[in-house]
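step 4 of 6: structure.
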Amino acid sequence: MMKKLILLALWLMPWMLQAQTEVIERFYEKYKEDERFSRVYISPKLMQMAGGFLNSNAENGDEDAENLMELITRVKGIRILSAEKIGGLSLFNEAMGELKKGLYEELMDVRDKESSLKFMVREEGGRIKELLMVSGSTNEFTLMSMQGDFTYQDLNMLSENTNLPGMKEYGQAKKQK
Amino acid sequence: MEKKHKELWEKYWQGETTLEEEKALLSGLEDQVEDDNLRTFFSGVQSIRSEKPTDRLMPAAGFPFRKLAAALLFLLTVSACWWGYREYQYQQQAMAYQQVVEAMGKIQLNLRKGTSQLESMEKIKYLNSGANWYENNKNN
């Protein structure tokens, strides 16, 4: 009897996992038509192209570029759903309600009066398969999912690397717009 | 003789003459022609017939400007296409990189929101060790 239950649980596991990830998809689907929302999907192919660009433009011995390159090769895709001029706190709570806590481990939770931010990770065999970031404030909301196969060290690098190659130029270009 | 000649003509019109008979007919015809122009014509034909083919060298081929131009045009077209494709690919890569950097930048910014709060915790840790050191020294 016990064996049968274990087998059944193992058989159902992929479906359960899929159902969990579908929650994010549902959230995307629900708001993708809303004009206040902007949706970005960086596919594995696009990640590969970005890696190619960095590889051909980085100078030899640029440690920041090498670190970023390593991270890019480990990331399989990024989904971003963001909205401005919107009640982000209620959307934050809605997203939290949709996400089943069992699948994601909480990494960081920062809250103050006007904003909530949560980082969650989905681990498999000690490696991060997905980093989920949900942030909501009184006037904006962001849901971001970075999928791949990376470590906490990679996240640390991302957090500590103050000079992402191209970030400064990107910021300047955005200001000019 | 004339009778034989007539018979040959009959045979010719019936399409039954051999090549030899036709030659005999033609030679007879040339003899009978009285007009000087025709006589000149027949003698010309005769002299052409007597000419034997001689080996002549083919005219030397000139520099193949057309082939070269075509090949050059083809190469130019191919390299222009290739260059255009590379440029397009580079633009696509740059756009992809920009999006990735934007996404990573967002993650970084938010990760720092949390870590900046942890930094203040670090300061408290050092304050605590200072207090311990003071306590230890006071006891000694």
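step 5 of 6: annotate
 - Residues 2-31 of chain A form the longest helix (30 residues).
 - Residues 50 and 56 of chain A are 10 Å apart (CA to CA).
step 6 of 6: archive
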